[in-house]
Amino acid sequence: MWSLSVVLNPLLFLLLFGYCPSVTIRPKEGWQVYSSAQDADGRCICTVVAPEQNLCSRDAKGRQLRQLLEKVQNMSQSIEVLNLRTQRDFQYIMRMESQIKGLRSKFRQIESDRKTLVNKNFQELKGKMESLQPLIPVLEQYKTDAKLISQFKEEIRNLSGVLMGIQEEMGAYDYEELQQRVLNLENRLRNCMSKLTCGKLMKITGPLTVKTSGTRFGAWMTDPQASPKNNRVWYMDSYTNNKIVKEYKSIADFVAGVESRTYNLPFKWAGTNHVVYNGSLYYNKMQSNIIVRYSFETGRVVTQRALESAGFHNVYPYTWGGFSDIDLMADELGLWAVYATNQNAGNIVISQLNPDTLQILNTWNTEYSKRNAGESFMICGTLYITNSHLTGAKVYYAYSTKTSTYEYTDIPFHNQYFHLSMLDYNARDRTLYGWNNGHQVLFNVTLFHIIKTEDTS
Fold first, then answer.
1. Could you give the count of Cα atoms lying within 13 Å of 285 in the half-sphere of its Cβ?
2. From CA 152, how far away is CA 56, in angstroms rounded?
3. Which end of the chain is more exposed for a tag (fewer CB within 10 A), N or C?
């Protein structure tokens, strides 16, 4: 057994759809190693990007090879047709050759006996000439076909040179064999990736702008508990006086503005810190500390419960205000509520909730002031808090519910549009969803993992 320390930076699978309105965003093809180094103990630390499955089939060189091969096959078929036609014409010409030889002997006979045989031979010669008339267009077609064959042969020679160049560039392996080797490697890496459940936040990159819409404040999200084929998007504009939730079947539909359904909630929401988890929307009821669970399947409120002692209605908001007192979020370990209470002197309180009943399962009191926090999000049971919602913001504080300890961090991120009113982690995508001054954006995260596996080298 050997120990491998890995910093996994999973590529955003949503980007495959190319959802930027003005630019088609496509992931780099293949597994990418961003950086590598050794820690103090000599363990390898590397940054790996996992591609969308089966991207090898869309490899650029593979496409070029297939296109060239198809072209060569089409040309080969055309040459085969021309070859059959020229063979047919050649047989016809051979028959004409014997007739021409017969004409020559007739001409010689006429030369020797002009007077007695002129009339008889003239009629016979006339008939022979008429039978040779069809030979003229055949010869013309034969010359045309011969020219086409010559052109095709030249093109095939050129294509053969290109194919040889690509083969040399790709290496000595047969393309199918090379593709199979890459797929086997992908499977091994994906098996390794499946062991990576939780990790420590190391870096935030991006953002990638998905869309520009709505007001300065709002929320958008996908369900981290949904199946890989379910990529529905929910959109909630503004932080108050609204209860309309828009649903889109995919990121592509979201970018195009093609709504699949609209939900009219029974209560207006407060803030922008809502979350969709396992088919239900969890949000803070306006002007209260009540959490509402709304089922998208039934279109009804399943349950609602007050978060005892939690401040609300801008008593303990984030630095930007907006009734952001109660922040609901989800990660690999479940559903969470982040808020502040008078009992904890306005500092942040973390509670893990039962997703079905909204009962509090456990609570942790931190020493970080809620009013000094720009935004926060949970990853693997650790709450990460930013020091601002404006330009220059960074992840400044992390509290682990596993160890009930905290640490100060220094993880910067690019606040591209200067004002963040939402920042939530999606465990399925391993991505941060953000609402950045009327822009819906995605941040990629780098997590640090230590995994143990068999040495199969």
1. 16
2. 31
3. C
Q: Residue length, the chain?
A: 457
For residue 217, the SS3 value is: coil
Q: What is the pLDDT of residue 264?
A: 98
Mean pLDDT over residues 404-417, rounded? 96
Rounded alpha-carbon distances, angstroms, from residue 229 to 104, 134, 428, 440? 82, 67, 12, 22
Yes or no: say if 136 and 158 are a contact pair by the CB < 8 Å rule: no
Alpha carbon distance 156, 72 (integer Å): 7
Burial track 93-112 (b if 16+ CB lie within 10 A, e otherwise): eeebeeeeeeeeebeeebee
CA atoms of 357 and 348, how far apart (whole Å): 23
Q: Using DSSP bridges, classify how beta strands 2-8 and 44-49 pair: parallel, antiparallel or unpaired.
A: parallel
pLDDT at 183 (0 to 100): 73
DSSP for 319-377, please give it.
TTBTT---EEEEETTEEEEEEEBTTTTTEEEEEEE-TTT--EEEEEEEEEEGGG-S-EE
pLDDT tens for each residue of 191-204: 665 556 688 999 99
Helix ranges (H only) for 35-134 are: 60-112, 114-132
DSSP code, position 13: G
Q: What is the pTM of this model?
A: 0.62
CA-based nearest residue to 431, from 419, 441, 416: 441
Q: What is the mean pLDDT of residues 398-419?
A: 96
Question: % helix / strand / coil in the chain, to the nearest 5?
Answer: 30, 35, 35
Q: What is the mean pLDDT of residues 235-259?
A: 96
Separation of alpha carbons 222 and 408, rounded Å: 30
Burial of 375 (0-12, 13-18, 19+ CB in 10 A): buried
| Measured CA distances, 395 to 376, 408, 415 (Å) | 8, 9, 12
Q: Residue 390's CB: how many other CB atoms inside 10 A?
A: 14
pLDDT at 259: 97
The answer to whether residue 9 scores a pLDDT higher than 60 is no
Do 399 and 250 form a contact (C-beta atoms < 8 A)?
no
Q: For all residues of the chain together, what is the average pLDDT? A: 79
Q: What is the pLDDT of residue 151?
A: 72
CB 323: neighbour CB atoms within 10 A?
22
Query: Is CATH 2.40.128.630 the right assignment for the domain spanning 201-448?
Result: yes
Tell me what percent of the residues of the chain surpass a pLDDT of 90.
Answer: 53
**Alpha-carbon gap, residue 284 to 373, rounded angstroms:** 19
Q: What is the rounded average pLDDT of the residues 306-312?
A: 96
Whole-angstrom distance, CA of residue 157 vs CA of residue 75: 12
